[in-house]
């Protein structure tokens, strides 16, 4: 048998095997569609010219779900609220970054991603389980908006296996289990695989959605643990420079993404072309940035450990409960770059600590290359009442720090000085 050759006598190339950090630079973008440019053009157009009325009819039939596109069919674009080239490029690039994902949908904020997912699958009379603590904005969405639409939120303490199992077993029309892990701002973790397995035991399994903003897509892979959807505030690590807002949902099943995009078309919350372009240039460095930030944070918390003016430091490497340690070891590759310090002396000391920072900025948000610190009880989680704050472990002395890419020794010095001065 002779060696295989193509019609020009050349040996065929071996199949290309590429890892996520390589694939993110290879996928989604065809330079021929951007006049040969090495970076995608920004297609700011709001509407697209059809090649024929038949092509327009076909594009609408596919968009409305009346017919399936053929696998290799090039369905024409319609109107940018539905989709546009920069969203398609970005969505294709997200897929290799998220282990286990088949598809992605981009939104104009993380809250748009979360609310669109809920509105796609929950209806009046539905129940939704969520883990506590949860980001304050998500808490507000569930109680100030979704509850009025007849969607009942059911809180479950993060990391409580029995409470999660019985909540899933006992709920009525349970449509979604929304897990934020690690939780904002205490970093308590929830076992994703356990919740997904319990969800599948129901005759009408709810979707399991994980807010993966704190550790994903680099250090935690919920879709490989049985979750159906992974949700991001792309504003944070994905964008990485505190200069844009965005949201992403990745899914194991492309059918789920199709439904989500239909909701997005109706709500009109797709990410704009310029922002998609900006975000897709950031994806290639997300693992570089997160690795550096996580190492920085680890060195800093080790340097601050046991400080006399702090009750405790919340960081995955300092988990005291065996169950929290087990979950961390089972589902996270590295601890990430957020930690919270619970200061002795409550709110006055927390405020004084923040006033003493010069490198770290007193701002909400996280995941940017610059370090940020905030007081969750009076900012990100301030819509919660005292009981809810206490249940969530958001104490008056808690300060949350998002570690950036600065030299960790400067940050460790700054936090030690601020702690010493209290
Ligand atoms: C865990 C988490 N999820 C969602 C959000 C909301 O994201 P966005 O501000 O992009 O809407 C945030 C914002 O801080 C967050 O921390």
For this structure, what is the CATH class of the largest domain?
Alpha Beta
CATH superfamily of the largest domain: Type I PLP-dependent aspartate aminotransferase-like (Major domain)
The major pleated sheet works out as: 7 strands, mixed
How would you name the oligomeric state of the polypeptide chains in this document? Answer: single chain
Strand content: 5-15%
Distance between the termini: 80 Å
Q: What's the CATH architecture of the largest domain?
A: 3-Layer(aba) Sandwich
What compounds sit in this structure?
pyridoxal-5'-phosphate
The total strand number stands at: 12
Strand order of the largest sheet: 1-7-6-5-4-2-3
Low-confidence stretches: none
The overall pLDDT, averaged over residues, is 95
Q: What are its keywords?
A:
422 residues, Aspartate Aminotransferase, domain 2, Aspartate Aminotransferase, domain 1, 2 domains, seven-stranded mixed beta sheet, 37% helix, binds pyridoxal-5'-phosphate
Description:
With 422 residues, the chain is an alpha/beta fold. The protein has two domains: 20-33 and 81-283, Aspartate Aminotransferase, domain 2 (3-Layer(aba) Sandwich); 287-420, Aspartate Aminotransferase, domain 1. The protein has 14 helices and twelve strands. Helix 7 links the parallel strand 4 (174-180) and strand 5 (207-211). Helix 1 runs antiparallel to helix 3, helix 4 packs parallel to helix 5 (136-146) and helix 6 packs parallel to helix 7 (192-200). The longest helix is centred in the C-terminal third of the chain and has 19 residues, at 286-304. The chain is globular. The protein starts with 19 loop residues before the first helix and ends with a helix. Pyridoxal-5'-phosphate (PLP) is lined by residues 109-111, 135, 137, 180, 184, 211, 213, 233, 235, 245, 247, 365.
């Amino acid at each position: 048998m002779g060696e295989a050759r193509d019609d020009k006598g050349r040996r065929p190339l071996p199949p290309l095997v590429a890892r996520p950090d390589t694939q993110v630079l290879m996928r989604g973008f065809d330079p021929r569609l951007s006049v040969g440019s090495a970076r995608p053009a920004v297609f700011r157009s709001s509407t697209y010219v059809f090649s024929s009325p038949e092509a327009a009819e076909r594009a609408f039939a596919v968009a409305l779900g009346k017919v399936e596109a053929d696998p290799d069919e090039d369905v024409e674009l319609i109107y940018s609220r539905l989709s546009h080239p920069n969203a398609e490029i970005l969505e294709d690039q997200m897929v290799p970054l998220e282990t286990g994902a088949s598809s992605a949908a981009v939104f104009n904020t993380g809250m748009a991603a979360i609310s669109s997912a809920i509105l796609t699958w929950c209806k009046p009379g539905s129940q939704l389980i969520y883990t506590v603590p949860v980001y304050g904005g998500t808490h507000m969405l569930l109680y100030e908006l979704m509850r009025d639409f007849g969607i009942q939120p059911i809180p479950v303490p993060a990391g409580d296996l029995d409470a999660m199992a019985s909540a899933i077993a006992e709920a009525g029309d349970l449509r979604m289990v929304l897990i934020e892990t690690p939780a904002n701002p205490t970093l308590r973790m929830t076992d994703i695989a356990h919740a997904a397995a319990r969800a599948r035991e129901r005759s009408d399994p709810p979707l399991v959605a994980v807010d993966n903003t704190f550790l994903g897509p680099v250090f935690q892979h919920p879709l490989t643990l049985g979750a159906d959807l992974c949700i991001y505030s792309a504003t944070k690590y994905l964008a990485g420079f505190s200069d844009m807002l965005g949201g992403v949902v990745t899914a194991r099943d492309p059918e789920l993404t199709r439904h989500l995009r239909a909701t997005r078309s109706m709500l009109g919350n797709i990410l704009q072309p310029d922002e998609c372009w900006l975000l897709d240039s950031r994806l290639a460095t997300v693992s570089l940035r997160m690795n550096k930030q996580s190492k920085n944070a680890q060195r800093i918390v080790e340097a601050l450990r046991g400080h006399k003016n702090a009750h405790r430091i919340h960081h995955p490497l300092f988990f005291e409960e065996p169950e929290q340690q087990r979950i961390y070891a089972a589902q996270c590759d590295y601890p990430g770059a957020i930690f919270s310090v619970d200061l002795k002396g409550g709110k006055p000391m927390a405020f004084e600590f923040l006033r003493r920072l010069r490198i770290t900025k007193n701002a909400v948000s996280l995941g940017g290359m610059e370090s940020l610190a905030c007081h969750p009880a009076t900012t990100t989680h301030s819509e919660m009442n005292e009981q809810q704050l206490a249940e969530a472990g958001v104490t008056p002395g808690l300060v949350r720090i998002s570690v950036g890419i600065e030299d960790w020794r400067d940050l460790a010095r700054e936090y030690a000085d601020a702690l010493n001065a209290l």
